[in-house]
Amino acid sequence: MRFGTAMTHSVVIIGSGFGGIGMAIRLRQAGVRDVVILEKAGDLGGTWRDNTYPGAACDVPSHLYSFSFERKIDWSRRFPPQAEILEYLRHCAREHGVLEAIRFGTEVTEARFDEDAALWRISTTTGDLAARVLVSACGQLNRPELPPIEGRESFTGPAFHSSRWDHGTDLRGKRVAVIGTGASAVQIVPEIAGEAAELLLFQRSAPYVIDKPDRPYRDWERAALRAVPGLYALSRARIYALFEARALGFIRYPRLMGIMERGFRRHLAEQVADPALRAELVPGYRMGCKRILLSGDYYPALNRPNVRLVTDPIERVTPAGIRTAGGEHEADVIVYATGFRSTEFLSPMKIVGREGRELNDAWRDGAQAHLGITVSGFPNLFLLYGPYTNLGHNSIIYMLESQFRYVLGCVEALRGAGLDWIDVRPDVQDAFTREMQERMRSTVWEAGCRSWYMTAGGKVVNNWPGYTFAYRRATRRPDPRHFRARRAAAR
Description:
By secondary structure, the chain is α/β, with parallel strands linked by helices. It is built from 14 helices and 21 strands. The strands form five sheets. Strands 1, 2, 3, 4, 5, 6, 7, 18 and 19 form a nine-stranded mixed β-sheet that branches. Strands 8-17-9-10-13 form a five-stranded parallel β-sheet, with helices on one face. Helix 12 packs parallel to helix 14. It is globular, with a radius of gyration of 23 Å. It starts with a strand and ends with a strand. The N terminus is likely disordered.
């Protein structure tokens, strides 16, 4: 269908990671065939396409880090590596016929709601199109955060963000500086410590790192999963229950994190013998306030004679390395393992809703969306992995599948009731946001630390302060009372 000079589609999805691919599959299964996925890169995969650094892997077990409707029983390891996850996503896209729906190399610059026509008019780097329904599947971890360190551009050697790894840079025999001690650094450091002549790890605050019980799956285990009906489902359910039990410490009784903290201290003492180094690796905040990291080889890597932990604050980057309060540290390569701009969600796209309202203005004090999915004033716009839907204890794919069902319910309501658009009521969204902020106060995420879960103003807007099964119940179906709507006959 054409509207003016732009092709009009039933649904346009922005992004081709787990959210975009899964949503497209579910729409096709529900009979919505006119679906287009816009992807700015040349391949699908989202964060698992971008993060190809050495050691990149997931910290959720394989059997739970996959769609419930597309089983994979032949994972190579208990925790899936990046390349295998990316290939799984490619398989899902091929198997369910959504690969041909992806327009690669197409970046969205603006999406504007045309209230008269009840369409989203979308401007991209390859042309314009229109959609009755717009779904953002951009995720939270897609825009690299480069720290505002003075002199960063002056460094004369290779320098890159961990999610933009330069595989053409040979680290063998080089002096490598890694800035940051988050999830990426904990995986990178053990992998490159053996080839670098010297590895300097610049730590602003120590993370909690607990053991990662990873290992390859044995042949007989994979054979049993293929041969025994229900064994895979049982494994998936067991992992889910074990991880969900951790929510008590995150969302309700932060003092319970003390049990895990004692385990962390035992793990640290077993792997780091030097008391001075061990003291520098003990975080100064409550466990769980920032993301808990999993690794069995991070601390042993820090024991290596060619690895040095630097805790002095960085003053500036120089042409030859990094200067701290303690002096100059020469480096040949700098790796910025400094995370992502996680609270900006749809930026830098310009999203304009009813009455010319821009999403960036609506979210000036922090992102808001009812159930993390719908935004008042922006009809027929649905977010996947939006505000208040990140987790600290379980698989985000479980949350995504809950959102798929809710969005499908909204799309079916539009089709079945003959509606032009639906728009969540502002009082419903405000009530949800107040509830989230009230519940957030009892969580470990507001225990006094700064984290990527927070806005610059200190408001936690990323995480779901509840159980994942409670989120699934809340998103079981859209409640018509929560929305304003316009019937097609009114056009």
